[in-house]
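Bit of a strange request maybe. I'm writing a small parser for structure token strings and I need a real example to test against, not something I typed by hand. Could someone generate the tokens for this chain?
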Amino acid sequence: MSPLRRRAEAEPERILPAPQIAGRVLDAQLHLLDRQILDAGGVPVTTVDDVEIAGLDPDGGGSAPAQAGPAATGPPAPRVGALLTGPVLGTRIFGGRPPADRFVRIPWRDVAEVGTVIRLGVRGDSLEASWVERWLRNHVIARIPGGRHAPD
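Reply from user aminoacidic:
Good idea to test on real output. This should exercise your parser:
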């Protein structure tokens, strides 16, 4: 056997580059979890405790292709459906997971920007998630000297 033929047989097949994905790719743990959420006016609302992923089949069979016909290349990529926040302090200390009905959902369509903080395109007053932040501001922070106004 010639050395060229042996080398060709020993070389692995070329790996094709990953297909381009439309939209921004987010690492949920790096970009979303434990980030503070600010409303459209820059007022703190809550933090992200969990993420709801849409586009996954719970049976593990995959989901239907985004398109039909020859352009369909397979199932669409999973996407973020909502940001979840709720009473997770006890479960972080003692373990476990709170029931799903205890989480407050913030739909992904309300998110305007993902950066060091997550900015919403809506006012926080319209969200159920902001009650904790408002209660702490009014009952705890307001009692601290100088806590009722922004620093100069």
